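USER: Fancy drafting a protein?

ASSISTANT:
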Amino acid sequence: MPRSTSGLIPHEIRDAFKWEIASELGLTDQILTRGWAETTSRDCGRIGGKIGGNMVKVMVQYAQQALANQKT
């Protein structure tokens, strides 16, 4: 069963995370030159792993803010 493409975080923000992490890992030039399709699975995994951790933190922050807003 395919994963749902709609989520709590908009697509644009997820893309921004990808590029930010790729930049931190020094992969931006490689991706701009060759594209995502030619990026090794190892490098994509490095990017995805860091994104996953950051996304969880952001989603927790959003949830905490939403709860705080409901209480006030």
User: Anything to note?
Assistant: Residues 41-71 form the longest helix (31 residues). The CA atoms of residues 2 and 11 lie 17 Å apart. The two ends are 40 Å apart (CA to CA). Residues 11-71 form one domain.
